[in-house]
Amino acid sequence: xxxxxxxxxxxxxxxPAASAQASSIDGLYWFETWVSAIMTLLIFLAIVIFAFKYxxxxxxxxxxxxxxxxxxxxxxxxxxxxxxxxxxxxxKIFFAAQQPPKDAMEVFVTGKQWMWKIQYPDGGxxxxxxxxxxxxxxxxxxxxxxxxxxxxxxxxxxxxxxVPGHYDSLWFTATKPGRYHLFCTEYCGxxxxxxxxxxxxxxxxxxxxxxxxxxxxxxxxxAGQRQFEQLGCSTCHLMDQQGRCPNLRGLYMKPVxxxxxxxxxxxxxxxxxxxxxxxxxxxxxYQPNIMPVFKGQISEEGVIQVIAYIxxxxxxTPASQQGSQQPxxxxxxxxxxxxxPESFPSASKAARSSQPQQ
Amino acid sequence: MDASTxxxxxxxxxxxxxxxxxxxAYAVYRNMYPQAFASTSVYMNVILGGTNTAVLICSxxxxxxxxxxxxxxxxRHLMLFLVLTMIFGATFLVIKGFExxxxxxxxxxxxxxxxxDEFPKYAHNAQILFFLYxxxxxxxxxxMIVGLxxxxxxxxxxxxxxxxxxxxxxxxxIGLYWHFVDVVWIxxxxxxxxxxxxx
Amino acid sequence: MATLVxxxxxxxxxxxxxxxxxxxxxxxxxxxxxxxxxxxxxxxSITFMFFFGGAAAVAFRINLLTPQGIFAxxxxxxxxxMHGIIMVFFFLVPSIPATLANFLIPIMVGAKxxxxxxxNLLSWYLYIIxxxxxxxxxxxxxxDTGWTFYPPYSSTFSNSYVLSAAFGVFVAGFSSILTGxxxxxxxxxxxxxxxxxxxxxxxxxxxxxxxxxxxLGTPVLAITLLLLAFERIAHIGIFDPAIGGDPILFQHLFxxxxxxxxxIMILPGMGVISEIIACFSRxxxxxxxxxxxxxxxIAVLSFVVWGHHMFVTGESVYATLAFSFLSFxxxxxxxxxxxxWTATMYKGSVSFDxxxxxxxxxxxxxxxxxxxxLYLAALGTDVATHGTYFIVAHFHYVMVGGMVxxxxxxxxxxxxxxxxxxxSEAWSKFxxxxxxxxxxxxxxxxxxxxxxxxxxRYHAYPPEFQTLNVLSTAGASILGIGYIIPxxxxxxxxxxxxxxxxxxxxxxxxxxxxPSPPTTFNFDVTPTVVEEAYNYGPVEEVIG
Lengths: 358, 199, 544
Known about the structure:
The complex is a heterotrimer.
Chain A: H1 2-10, H2 20-53, H3 69-98, E1 105-112, E2 115-119, E3 125-127, E4 129-133, E5 137-144, E6 149-153, E7 158-162, E8 168-173, E9 178-184, E10 197-202, H4 204-212, H5 220-230, H6 233-237, E11 255-257, E12 263-265, H7 268-276, H8 300-312
Parallel strand pairs in A: 1-5, 4-10
Antiparallel strand pairs in A: 1-2, 2-3, 5-8, 6-7, 6-9, 9-10, 11-12
Helix pairs in contact in A: 2-3, 5-8
Chain B: H1 3-32, H2 34-39, H3 46-71, H4 75-105, H5 123-159, H6 169-194
Helix pairs in contact in B: 1-5, 1-6, 3-4, 3-6, 4-5, 5-6
Chain C: H1 26-30, H2 35-63, H3 73-92, H4 95-109, H5 117-139, H6 153-157, H7 162-189, H8 202-234, H9 247-281, H10 288-301, H11 317-345, H12 354-377, H13 379-385, H14 389-419, H15 425-452, H16 466-496
Helix pairs in contact in C: 2-3, 2-4, 2-5, 2-16, 3-5, 4-7, 4-8, 4-14, 5-7, 7-8, 8-9, 8-10, 9-11, 9-12, 9-14, 10-11, 11-12, 12-14, 12-15, 14-15, 15-16
């Protein structure tokens, strides 16, 4: 008897709240629960009372009532106003979840059947396990190698689908050290249920200790540089004398003019697309079909590493998201007849020649 | 409006939503990849497509005339116009067959032999357009084939003197269906054939 | 004529001719155009599918007794997918429309049959063909994509029988479209003299609104599944990220149907509840106009909320705002119905026959299910619960606690009309109680599991979730028993039940003025309607 009572006490009823976001979501959750409980109780009581008071033995003849427009309006508008509160509250929480702070620590996540591969900027890599410091905003940039997955940490109340073909992101600030579940919550095939893992929230000291043991292979950017050289990217993009391809120094998060007149920002998604599908967007003044298509030659993890390297080629400022505040570096024909602006450090001074299409 | 007419209109509304899904997909991707979509227009045979458009419009005319013939209890004209409608319909399908053959020869069938050598930078996204091209025109052609079957049914029944001014609802209903199939083509043709062409 | 027998045996009193005994050949059943016979054919078919889908559920709930599971993951994945596909497309969507509404709508409007009787039969054949295709998928090893068929998994990665399952659903969709079409035209064109729109029983309003959704929504599912099938066949397509396609487009197209579909599933049930509450309170439904229009409002609003299934896919923030707001709005007409039903009991004369017990169960459980929908309409809490057991609990509360209860209530209410027999009241009340207890024990723990984070479609789970899962499985076994008991006493009643008169409940409505069971053409003479619906007495009070 006692052991079954103890069993009852073991039943978890509510998840730990381990992020700043969790407590605000829980606030809305409890509001919704109170409203639901009260509403259910009211209906339940009304039915029980009416069923008893007006049971056939006690009330053999029904009183025919047409209706009441006032009541109808009342019980439509009243609940609707309560729902508006839920709507606004929920929207505010959601908006906040879309805007990671500028100084958020970036971690990269690749979802693949059936594991989560984590990569840290300093080169550390993990599978199905994520270490984060307490009190520091963390932004996850996520990619899928195959099907749709969904990254979720119940204790932080965060979740975002990871859809192949582009990057998805979420952010959180962990507030309580501990070990928490992480789950894939979009059915992705056979071993969907094994795409579970752990998030370890460490206090400052423990986190520093953990980090010092990380990344025998160097930082993410260093791994990216190795890829960059192995795959031959450096030939064109850093050392090129013929002006076949845009220079990557100082490129990250700058506006880029395309051959169709559009201007896009060279963000992570743009860089990824340029590697996987280089002919999707051609920079103004350059030719299509020169850069090899790397889809299939490089994994999503590898792309993340290369992007980290490319980011390192931009003079670093704490917030790498400067973008639109600076005047655009537009790669356009210059007065000197070349396509390379004078301001670029590695100048390719040769005149451009049109390349025959392959 | 009598019950059978309301029933047929309701059915046609379901068909609008059925094709609507594909039109929605087309709209989304055209918005995302306008140039890739425009690049595909050189592969669309506007002559054949335009001819088909004219053929279908004529078939709608003969269909309307057949309904009128039924209304006037004119069995000879009814059968004549039904046959003409079927000839136009079959012509449409034959021309479509030639177009599909051309697409196959030019390596434009996604998933089977797709190559896009003239505009390689648009190759990927053009596959989306061609996938939609085959789905939309294929679905349309399927509806035409069903329409031909329905018309042959009408022809047989007309031969048996089943229709007159007192009762010609099936002719009218199938006429509505045929007009609908025509209208779908009127929307398909500019979207698939005429984008990117400068006249 | 001269008799050869000295003492001729006493002749049995002649049983009146009705739609059931007018002919007994199998041809007269398989080629019937009588809407009542077609309804019976549907009752048999969907009951079979219900138990098949239910068996899959029992199997995977047994698997969930232990954290590591019992079956292989592949088996589990196929079980939950088949459960979803069968229950949604082959039970819930057709359920009340194809059975009770098919039977009752012509009678309720005073007609001999539906507008297109042969199309009605075609509907049933399409349903059977679709079911056979889906069963083929099961027999060959099943499909494992979930009932939602999301690509790229379903188009490129799954090696299960996706095509046959998708085609089965595709064909069954046309069955649904034709049923809806038939109802719309019948209600517009076949009403008896004097049967104005405002005199229609609310059951007719609900099924009319359902028909509108069926006709407008289902074709989009059809084309979506077709595009998916083509993609699977051609190994490349418009949802393929490799060529710039977007898997999320599939989700938009899929949910554009599948959200209105859930209202296809619940609206007819709401219609049943209106009828039952009125009869067993001996009162006209409170706020008839509001209840009728709420069905139409739900039908319209249902088409503009589909994005709430995709809040975590990276939808634009503006889209999420719009969908969240509209999702709250669509809750309002449902709430109106619940309040009106409750108010109908006020100053009524309430009896507790089995159909009424199911109606009580519906109101309570649908209220809980609907309120938990608010957690999901709100963006903040949806993010925390999407893809978890919270969602599973929510939709089972409305679909099973709501719709299946309404279906059982309606079957019990109109059983005497359909079969001419009464069932055992004691057993039916007992079964209703078992169903209610079993249901809550199965699904309430799942709300808790969901917020704790347990994902859905998991064949194995962290050990700390076990107790709640065990409770849920225990509830499922009780619920299963609760569903089997009516099978027994209802079938028993066919032969041994007391014969029912035309109006065993003393209810108002055209269906209770014809014999039980009705004759093939329902009415000897087309009725002329002179009174309001639910005319249990003249109006005595108008509040405010």
